[in-house]
Design goal:
The structure is a single chain. With 397 residues, the protein is an alpha/beta fold. It is built from 10 helices and 16 strands. The protein has helices spanning 51-69, 103-120, 164-175, 187-198, 236-246, 250-257, 287-307, 336-343, 358-371, 387-396, and strands at 7-12, 16-24, 30-39, 43-44, 47-48, 75-80, 86-95, 124-136, 139-141, 152-163, 180-186, 205-210, 215-221, 224-231, 321-326, 350-353. It has a 5-stranded mixed sheet. Strands 14-13-12-15-16 form a 5-stranded mixed sheet, covered by helices on one side. The protein is globular and about 80 Å long. The two termini are 33 Å apart. Residues 379-385 have low confidence and may be disordered.
Length: 397
Amino acid sequence: MKNSTLSLYLEINNLNYIFFAGERDEQNNFKTVYKLELPLEGINNNKILNLEKISDIIKNNVYIIEQQLNFTFKEIILILENFNPTFINLSGYKKLNGSQILKENITYILNILKSCVQDAESNKTVLHIFNSKFKLDNKKLENLPIGLFGDFYSHELSFILINSNEHVNLKNIFDKSNLKIKKILIKSYINGVKIINENKQTDTFFHIKLNENDTKIFYFEKSSLKFEQSFNFGSGIIIKDISNITSLSSAKIKKILNNIKLLDYTSEDELIEKTFFNKFDYKKIKKKLIYEIALARIKEISQIILFKNINFLHYIKVSNRIFLEIDDKLQFKCLKELYKKNFSLNGNYNINFINISSDSMLNTADKLVYFGWKKEAIPIINSQKSFIAALFDRLFG
């Protein structure tokens, strides 16, 4: 192992701190050589509550990793899932009156957009900026139209921000461990890029991740992360509904759902098999009842998350592609068709079931850190250049 190439990542999600140490191979793929997972402490409701506790956790466990690998880390890359980011999409305009589009025209627009974001969100820090849309005379373009002629040019940027206090707190936490934050990445951004890389001709879509107790949805448009939203309920609510109505334990319901089929044409008289019960707790429960409970709840979940969610009413008119990721513990075979039925609105939306592993997510994150992304405008953390100067370095190379 060439220790000089080791990198240290830390994912902070709703449940855990997860440290990953690894290196890139000859094909520039990230290979994890050490992983350490710890319960989340000191952070609650997307806020840092105990700075000292978190600092101790980071310092102590980074030391353990360094001892195991016989290596001292100077930098760390953060992957955040639970810091409640803010999303702002703004368009700027320039009247050209038939003249050529110059670099200075775009500089003017970017300065205006930057000022608007700073004025509106003075207590927040920008993590990511994406070049979302370019239009010349109301015609969408794939690339910056430098040198083209037209009458009216518009340029949209998408900003992702977090609370500045939390950003400062994170910096202070890692300063105490003598670690410089090399980059902060939003996990939805990483997962969206991974989906695009693995699904050619797909750059506009929804991703929905259903865990047992929480749910997250994000939307990518033209390879730019436009919005995400979290919910404090997950697929576990289906189990609770069935349990409340049938008086069966959650464990027994999970066993049943893993071993039966629930279909539209399930007979009204077909009962749950006796083999799922012992001789003392057998109950005559119709499969159709289980089906109807699950169907009703999954339909409600799909409506709340996406189809009747005011935050996505515009976006659902733009894309019909949905990538659905369900927690491994809740991938009950008999519910898959119900998810597909409800989230596709009976075939109107294209549903793909996926599973994003931590290894593949890390590999994508590493490539973003070291090679960038075609739509991201600027690396924010520790940039020595002005906002606009760094932005144009990325736009024009």
